[in-house]
Amino acid sequence: MEVVIGDKSLLGIQPDLSVICELSFHTMEDGVRMAKFDLMPDLQVSRVSWNGNEIPFVQESRNHDGSFYLQAPEPLKKGNVYNVTF
């Protein structure tokens, strides 16, 4: 993880926070296309890359629960290791 805390934002008194997370994981079953991550509702994802290419994702609103889902570009294979950056 790479975390950067900046100056107070122009829109409020909270400081800007930027995080880059590189995650490696393996799947437990074949054919999975969506993976769910439970994030704190205030943490919002701006982009996701898979092997350097941006991929689609879905994130619940801050007012809901902040759940974040990534959509794999191909069905995943059991036991393979995958790398994603968000």
List keywords for this structure.
Immunoglobulin-like; 86 residues; 4-stranded antiparallel beta sheet; mainly beta; 3-stranded antiparallel beta sheet; globular
Number of domains: 1
- Do you know the CATH architecture? Sandwich
Proportion in β-strands = 35-45%
Structural class designation: mainly beta
Count of beta strands? 9
Q: Per the principal axes of the C-alpha atoms, what is the gross shape?
A: globular
Q: What is the mean pLDDT? A: 81
CATH topology: Immunoglobulin-like
Major sheet attributes: 4 strands, antiparallel
List the helices and strands and how they pair.
Layout: E1 2-8, E2 15-20, E3 22-26, E4 34-37, E5 49-50, E6 53-54, E7 57-59, E8 68-71, E9 81-85
Antiparallel strand pairs: 1-2, 3-9, 4-8, 5-6, 5-9, 7-8
Could you characterize the architecture of this molecule?
It is a single chain. With 86 residues, the protein is mainly β. It has one domain: Immunoglobulin-like (Sandwich). It is built from no helices and nine strands. A four-stranded antiparallel β-sheet has the order 3-9-5-6, with no helix packed on it.
Brief digest:
The chain is an all-beta fold. It has no helices and 9 strands.
